[in-house]
Design brief:
The protein has about 350 residues and is an alpha/beta fold. Helix content is about 30%, strand content about 20%.
Length: about 350
């Protein structure tokens, strides 16, 4: 298949909408990461997403809507809490898990009776939903297991020859995937941290969401995944990543005393002058937003340089930084070294 990459202008959006309605897939920019979209109401279309990505069939997808009127196409009931969150954070990088609607393609939910829904803020994503008139299901537009794409070029690198069209909307604003909260149980559960923080959710809900065990820990053998996506080794570049937790001095000492062939430092911007090996930076230490924005391109950069092993300076674990930490933990397959 020939893959076309084009600017997400009006004509390109029309072409993308025609493809969606013909059960084809299209890569589309969102404010978080690029998504690989297909008509969420068509099983045939949604199965093509799994095929193109090489994604396990038991990992459900997020459906994207452009207005509250479209919500019943995806979910069958909406709690008061869900309305409050939608009002506060939509359009934006928040995904809510609710009971699924019957009309949603089965392949979207991967056998669950629940569905994930979000209203993206990116104008190209919204225009595509409006032009096609249907919600699109979309995971991140990378090959399953590799870092999420934050530019159209990243998408092309993974998906060339696998999908007909990539809409180029420039680099993504947020850089990590949406916050995922489940509202189907007795308590709200934060399944995946993102730009919308636990603190912001608590402010709207009037109580804290339970932090899913999967955010900070690998699944135990036999444990069921609340969010099946958390089961898989994720966001992993080819380079091995080790997270080094500690002060800049302790991190420096660790790197200095563990130098080998093919070793890189994945450090905060400004730290590279003081480190004795090649470095890739991922934002300033005091800006978790910048870290989120740069993390996935930094992981891809390590591979472009042919890094064998990267010592990553560990981010903080609260607020937006929790999202960065969660992605890095997975990229590192939970390999963390504490230094002091
Ligand atoms: O920012 C984002 O969320 C991006 C853009 C494209 O919207 N999408 C994205 O999709 O990150 P994906 O497939 O990479 O991640 C979806 C996550 C997975 O961890 C999946 O297991 C979880 O949401 N999920 C989807 N449906 C679910 C459900 N019914 N119950 C629990 N978790 C669900
Ligand atoms: Mg993904």
């Amino acid at each position: 298949m020939h893959t076309i990459l084009r600017q997400a202008d009006t004509e390109a959006i029309r072409q993308a909408a025609r493809l969606l309605l013909a059960d084809e897939t299209v890569a589309v920019p969102t404010e978080t990461v690029y998504g690989l979209a297909a008509n969420a109401l068509s099983d045939v279309a949604v199965r093509k997403i799994f095929e193109a990505k090489g994604r396990p069939q038991d990992n459900p997808l997020i459906s994207h809507i452009a207005s509250m009127e479209m919500l019943p196409m995806v979910v069958r009931s909406v709690s008061e809490c869900a309305y409050r969150l939608a009002e506060a954070f939509w359009p934006g990088p928040l995904t809510i898990i609710l009971p699924r609607a019957r009309g949603l393609a089965d392949a979207v939910c991967a056998g669950l009776d629940t569905a994930a829904v979000r209203m993206p803020a990116h104008p190209a994503a919204r225009a595509l939903i409006e032009a096609s008139g249907v919600p699109f299901a979309a995971p991140s537009a990378n090959l399953s297991g590799s870092p999420s794409p934050t530019t159209a070029e990243d998408v092309l690198a993974d998906m060339d020859g696998r999908i007909p069209l990539i809409l180029d909307g420039g680099p993504c604003d947020v850089g990590v995937e949406s916050t995922v909260i489940s509202l189907v149980g007795a308590e709200p559960v934060l399944l995946r941290p993102g730009r919308i923080t636990a603190g912001q959710l608590q402010q709207v809900l009037g109580r804290p969401a339970v932090l899913s065990n999967a955010v900070l820990h690998p699944l135990e053998q036999g444990e069921a995944a609340a969010s099946p996506g958390m089961k898989y080794k994720h966001y992993a570049p080819k380079a091995e990543i080790m997270l080094i937790k500690g002060s800049l001095d302790a991190y420096k000492t660790y790197v200095e005393t563990h130098l080998e062939e093919g070793v890189y430092a994945l450090c905060f911007t400004g730290e590279e002058q003081t480190l004795p090996c090649p470095c890739v930076t991922y934002g300033r230490a005091d800006s978790p937003e910048e870290q989120a924005h740069e993390l996935f391109s930094a992981l891809r950069m390590l591979d472009a340089h042919g890094a064998r092993l990267a010592y990553a300076h560990c981010p903080a674990q609260q607020g937006v930084a929790l999202a960065v930490y969660n992605r890095l933990l997975r990229a590192a397959a939970f390999h963390v070294v504490e230094v002091s």
